[in-house]
User: Fold this.
Amino acid sequence: MTNLPRYTLQPYKGMWSRYTCPQCLRHKVFSRYIDITTDETIADDVGRCSREVNCGYHLKPSEYFKSIDHRPWTIAGNGNGFGYRPLTYKDFEPSYLPKRMIRQTVRHYDNNHFVQYLAAKFGREVAYEQARLYLVGTSKHWPGACIFWQVDSADRVRTGKIMLYDAQTGKRVKEPFNHIAWAHKLLRKSGSQESQQSPKDAAGTAYHTQYPNNNLSDFRSSRLSDFNLKQCLFGEHLLQYHPGKPVAICESEKTAIIASIYYPELLWLAAGSLQGLNAGKCKCLEGRTVILVPDVNAYEQWVAKANQLSAALPAVNFRVMRFLEDAATPQQKAAGWDVADYL
Assistant:
């Protein structure tokens, strides 16, 4: 297998994946380098400006890490003073949200556009059951929005992705802007704003309702200022209840839930995005057979990703489903269908 570089420029996924250049200060012209093992950016200023003639800024990861301030090491005490030691997992341990937040949101499905779409297709009982199984919450951040909570295999809450769907079509609402937000960011934002009113969480429930004795205020001030987000697979919390089931991983949370209704013999999880599949997220799958189910037009990328994952996690048996790529019509390829569109 060809040795691939650890760092690469972030692939273009829309203008949200382009940033302000730290040198010329032009907006949406700067591509950041990401670590392919985590799909996370290295630093805000490590990347390349597309204005090669008028700006020409390009800071490579190798140049960034040459600086002693940015080396992937940390100061450690020893008997003779201080030296450097390699960073360990403990230095990058994920932050977690209180699990009580979920209990306040996994309800009010009559006001949840996504769950109502499922109810129209599969009936109320099935829709509500699957929503609760996958810990789908209801948010007031936008009327009708849902929360896809990310809970890892140890039942720790990493974050919640808040999205808005059309209740009739089941499609994401992208106009006049792409309706995506994150629970940990909204919680941090509310903690930084002074208000005479009770602050609201991502679900619109008053904090003091969830956290009597001001416990959340203490959590917010002490934990969210340096919140270290490490996403996990959506639906990962279900692994502990199905130790023998083969796993299927698709791109979107919506697709995982719909596919789980049609094919319950598989445990369906979601990577969250095309670039959201990495070794860090998949470590929880050791000892499993895992079928990757890419969207149409993403087959080759996920085959390459499967090769990387197999090398990093030899205890996981990765396979890539090709059916969608072979069966898709030109119109379906242009529309970027996924397995839920076929089902």
Observations:
- The chain is about 30% helix and 20% strand.
- Residues 7-70 form one domain.
- The first strand starts at residue 7 and ends at 9.
